[in-house]
Design brief:
Helices cover about 40% and strands about 25% of the residues. The chain is of the alpha+beta class. It has a five-stranded antiparallel beta sheet, with no helix packed on it.
């Protein structure tokens, strides 16, 4: 084998190694792009869950939510009474006179009862 043929063989091997490396990195890039999209979607989902909404846009399902007005936070829900949306506060045994809330948001996850034992 001449020096020229030896050099060509080395270059071919180097090119094959480079192509394998490029293929590997392309797979990594694809993985990281997919993972980045998945994480961005999850972040958007989590941010939406903690977003405050105007009270003029109440939730449709009557679920309990956090209510906010004048730096006071209560738990309550919205229902339809006499054809109007009405906010009901959960304040058992307390004579609460409170104007309509300005904002609401979903309740945070409750603590795990088993973890508190």
């Amino acid at each position: 084998m001449s020096d020229y043929e030896f050099t060509i063989d080395l270059q071919r091997e180097s090119l094959a190694d480079a192509n394998a490396t490029i293929g590997f990195h392309q797979e990594q890039i694809k993985f990281f792009r997919e993972e980045t999209k998945r994480l961005r979607d999850r972040i958007a989902e989590l941010e939406a869950a903690v977003q405050w909404h105007p009270a003029s846009e109440p939730p449709d399902d009557g679920k309990h939510v956090l209510l906010w007005r004048d730096n006071i936070c209560f738990v309550g829900y919205c229902t339809v009474l006499d054809g109007r949306y009405t906010w009901i506060l959960n304040a058992p045994g307390l004579p609460v006179v409170w104007p309509k809330p300005t904002h609401w948001r979903d309740m945070p996850p409750l603590p795990d009862a088993e973890a508190q034992k």
